[in-house]
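User: Please predict structures.

Assistant: First:
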Amino acid sequence: MLPGGALHPNEPARLRLADLPTPVERVTRLLSRRGIDPDRVPLFVKRDDRTGLGVSGNKVRKLEYLVADAVHGTVNGVGGADTLVTMGGVQSNHCRATAAVAARLGLKSRLVLRGADPREQEPPMAWGGNLLLDELFGGEVSFHDAKEYNGDREAMLMRVLGGVKQAGGVPYFFGTGGSVSLGSWGYVRCVYELAAQLDTAGWSGPVDLFCCVGSCGTHAGCVVGRALAGLADWRVVGVPVAGTAKTMSDGTRELVDETSAEFELGLTETDTPVEVLDGFVGPGYSIPTPQGDAAVRDAAATEGLVLDPTYTGKTMAGVLHAMSTGFVRDGAAVVFLHSGGAFGLMGSV
C-alpha cells in the first residue's frame, strides 16, 4: 500500500461510506455438521454483510468509488450529480444500497426495476424486503417488464435520465450491481484488507477465496486485487448464481481486462486467472435450490450466520462441496466472502 493509503498510483478516489474493515471470523461447527474436519481445512468468513448503511453488503464498497465520481468527478471530470440512477431486479440488493447511500449523502435515487409492482398483482401484495427499504430511503422506483428491460435498454434508460433532467436533476448512471471497472476497485481494496487480517490472525499459507458471481464486479475486483497485491499463493474462485459458467467466466474476464486497461494496471491474463465453480445455480437466478437452502439453514443453526437463497446460500453450498470433495488445495485456508443479502431471505426458505 502506498503512502496515504492508496493501493496503486492509478487507484481512483473514493468516499468512505462503509464500516471497514469488516470482520473475519473462523467457522468450525458448520464444518463439523457437514463431516468436514475444521482442523484439517480452516474456513474463515469475511463478513462483508456488515459494511453498514442498512445492511448493505458488498454493494457499498463499489459505491464508495462510483459516488465519489458522481459527486466530485474523480474519474470523468464532471461531477455535480444530485441523483444516483441504477437498475436491478425488484428485490435488488444493489438498488437498495444505492438508495441508502443517496439518503446518507442528501442525494436522490432513481431505481429502474425489472419486474412487476407487487401492488398490481392478483391478489395485491405489500412491498417488502429490499423494495420496502427502497421506499423508506426515499428512492423513486419504476417497474419494467422483461421485454422492455431486456429489449431496447438504451432507449429505456434515456427516458429515465431525461425525466430526471426535466425535473431539474443532474443524474449519474451506473449499471446492475455497480459492476463496472470503477466499481470493481471496491473488491481490489477488500483483498488487501483481507490479506492483512489473515496475516494478523497468523495465517501465512495459501488461500482459496470463494465469492458469489452474479454481475461479476465482486469476482473481477478480487481477481485484480490478488494480482496487484502479489498474492501468488492465493486462488480466487467464483461461484455463479445466474447464467451459465461460461457466461459468468466471460463476464468476469471482460471486466478484469477493462479495469486493467482503463486504469493502466498492466495486468495480463496470466496475472489474472478467472476460475469458477459450476453446479450451484439450479433452475436459474433467484430460484432457491435444495443445496442452497440447506446451507442457509445449517449456517444459521450452527454459527448464527444469516445467508440468503439467491446469492450467499448457493455460494456457501459450493464452498462446502469444494471442501468435502478435494477441490480445495491441500494446506490452503478457505475464505468465504459473505456478500450480504439478508433481506432476500424473508419468506424464501
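Second:
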Amino acid sequence: MNIPAPPERLMPLRRPALIISSLSLLVILTVGPACDFGKHSQRAPNVEIEGDGSWYKGSNEEKEYLLKTFPAEGEKTIPWPPEELRRYVDISVDVTKSSFSSVILYRGKKISWAEYNIRKFSEYLVKEHVLLPGDRITLRIFGSKPNSQEMSQDQSLDIANPPLQVKIKADVYTNRYNDRHLQVAKVWSDTPDGEKETVNTIEEWCLKQIGKEIYTKSPLLNHMANVKRNTDSKKGKRVLIFITDAHIDFENLYFSPAHYSDELVAGIRKGVEELNLKPFDNPDPNVSIIIFGLNYQGDERFRLKQQELLRWFFDKQDPQLVTLIVS
C-alpha cells in the first residue's frame, strides 16, 4: 500500500466573486463610447444600480445587456446570468490504470486514488464555490487503450447549474443621455440547493465512470490540448478542469514518480514542440485551467518536476489563470 504525503496546495485559490449576500450597494456603470442608445447622446448612458449587487460583476457585456433589457421605465424579473453570458465548464476525469494503482485511507476506508480524487474534488467545488449560477457543464472521461492513441474524450453528459432570479425596477432619469436607475428589489434562486445538487450529480457520474472504465495509458497533454482547442468555438468565459494524478504517457515516454529524469522530460518537451501541441498561442483572459489531483506519491523532487512540466505546457497563458491543486 502506498499512502501519499498529506495534501498540499501548489497555488493560492481565489474564491469566485459571485457569492449571494444581503449587502446593499450603489454602483455607477458606464458603457463604452461605441454604444449609441440615443441620437442626441453625447456620451454613453450611465446605469445606476441600487440594492443587492452580489449577482453582478460589472463587465461591459453585462452593462449592455441591462441597457437592452430595460429600454424604458418598468419592473421585471430576469434570470442571471442570461443565457448568452453564462460560463462553460468542462470537467475531464482520468480513468487510466495509474489512478487505481495507489490506495489511500479516506474517512477510515481504503480506496483507490481515483475515487479519492473524485471525493476530494466534490469537497473542493463546494468549499471554494467554484461553480457559479447558470454554468453550463460538460463531464467527460479520458484515457488511451494499449498500443493505441485512441482516446475517450467524447462529450458524455451535459448539466446546468441553475441561474439566479433578479427582480428589478427601472427608471430613466435623463432623457438626453438615456441614463438608467435600477432598483434591485430581490435576488433569489428557484432551486436553493441547486449548487449542492449539481455537485452531487457530478460526483455520482464520475464515481460511476471510474467504476467501469479503466484505460492503460494517460495521454494527458494530448487530451488537455484537444479539449482547449475543441472548445475554442464557445463564447464567453470557459473553465477547463482536469481531475488526474498527472502521470503522463506521451508517445513512448511515461512520466511518473518512477520515471522523471531530465532526459525523459526533455523528450516530452521536444515532442510537444514538434507537434505544436501547446494549447495557447497567446494569453486568453476568457479561459481558466484547473488541474486537480497531482499524485506525486510523497516524492518531493517528482512534485517539483510535475509542476514544472505542467507550467511549461501552459506557459503562454496567464499563470494566474492556471491553478494546480494537490488533492
